[in-house]
Request: fold
Amino acid sequence: MNIVVTGASKGIGFETVLALNTDPKNEIVAIARNEEKLRLLKKRSAYPDTISILPFDLERFELYETVLKPKLNDAFEAVDILINNAGVLIKKEFEKQNYQDYDKQFNLNIKAPFALIQLMLPYFNKKAHVLNISSMGGVQGSSKFSGLALYSSSKGALAVLTESIAEEFKDQDIRCNCLALGATQTEMLAEAFPAYKAPVSASEMANYIADFAIKGHYYFNGKILPIALTTP
Ligand SMILES: NC(=O)c1ccc[n+]([C@@H]2O[C@H](COP(=O)([O-])OP(=O)(O)OC[C@H]3O[C@@H](n4cnc5c(N)ncnc54)[C@H](OP(=O)(O)O)[C@@H]3O)[C@@H](O)[C@H]2O)c1
Reply:
């Protein structure tokens, strides 16, 4: 399988690459801004030769065609799985969230997945799987948390994008699902909720994501699946 994982330098994305890398038949492109951490990921992996690191700031939309596309082309002629995992959470009271906070969260959490899917459309194999990593906060009717209005809204948009992509590309056999994650112990969670300890580690969640990325689209398409022990 040829697989692209965004947000691979730490947390859930880092561990997802390691989980996918237990099978040497998986060729993985790992994207994030921090090149040093991506190098560490390669060092930590069982089959480093099957991981290509691609340091890139996914908010630089003006560079997608000129920089990102050629680099992806260097790695792969075609793609089987895209995991849109990179995300950002800015926890602030609603009155204090400013336009920069809005742009940052919506740029990375919804515009980047939109732009990446669009960029990769010509390269998807039959039965390709686009897997969007959202949050329980982005699911209609779930518990909401103060300070996460923009984060949760951007993740809700990603969930609905998933349903729309599945419908629009069903004839091309491109499948798209969304995992709405519950609390998972990572830097993102620790920064937002320092006193809280999640019941699931990044590697436990990553094992589920890696498995679902490989097999989930044979059973689901256009689905938003809650993967959470905590949030009702
Ligand atoms: N942890 C949770 O409890 C939880 C719950 C629900 C959903 N999620 C979702 O799960 C995903 C992973 O979360 P996490 O907890 O593992 O977060 P994390 O530890 O903060 O990791 C975020 C990843 O995104 C990358 N990233 C951030 N800005 C980027 C940019 N501009 N361009 C490219 N990459 C960028 C980071 O790499 P660089 O800094 O190197 O760029 C990093 O690899 C996110 O989408 C998050 O919303 C997490």
About this structure: The pocket of NAP is lined by residues 6-13, 32-34, 37, 57-59, 85-89, 108, 133, 135, 181, 183-184, 186-189, 198 (CB under 6 Å).
